[in-house]
Amino acid sequence: MITKLKPNKFKLETDTIWSFKDRGSWATHNGKYPGNWSPYIPRNVILRYSKEGDTVLDQFVGSGTTLIEAGLLNRKAIGIDINPDALSITKRNTNFFENKKNIKLKIGDSRNLKFIKDQSIDLICTHPPYANIIKYSKNIKKDLSHLDIKEFSKEMEKVAKESFRVLKKDKYCAVLIGDTRRNKHIIPLGFKVMEKFINAGFLLKETIIKEQHNCKSSDYWETKSIKYNFLLISHEYLFIFRKP
Prior knowledge:
The protein is an alpha/beta fold. The protein has one domain: Rossmann fold (3-Layer(aba) Sandwich). Helices cover 28% and strands 24% of the residues. It is built from six helices and ten strands, in the order βαβαβαββαβββαβαβ. Strand 5 (121-126), helix 4 (149-166) and strand 6 (167-177) form a beta-alpha-beta unit. Helix 4 (149-166) packs parallel to helix 5. It starts with 16 loop residues before the first strand and ends with a strand. The relative contact order is 0.15.
């Protein structure tokens, strides 16, 4: 049963460091889906970079956090995922909206959005997987979460090009992505993805540092951090791109 439809004492973020210790549990939001982002992120992005009646796209829809916020803020929304299980979860999570025509779900590949017209989207607000850190499916060959860093970065170039194609001119694309570590060294996955979007034609409007909270097994990794002399990654990047 839904007891509230908006966060308590919400305040729009005004600087480039975002930190949400309270993850957010209004509407149907919850942290059960692995790797999903706090609803405070799409709420801030949607309020800043779109207006009521606009169409918001999330091509890595997951459990539907972006679509829930879009609906609550009187936007239309399109959610795409290559995993039908994710779409089923999103459908359940958005089922409370009375006007279901404003929420469209489709199974698809973020690298090929052929069913979306050129320059028809007002805002992209998305949270792709971080290479193969979390695998979101078992037998879906085209799932980007199965790819290692080099191949993942290459395929994200296609995602960036499709994002640029479907977005209207002078509109915004928000992408949350983090880094990873291999052989004791940081792999700057976030900056690799940022570069792909700039190469696709986007301009970088903002780089936001999003602090991570409530990471599982933190005590375990803190011990490892001291023992093996490495720092825990406790931030992600939220890149705001503009299509000129």
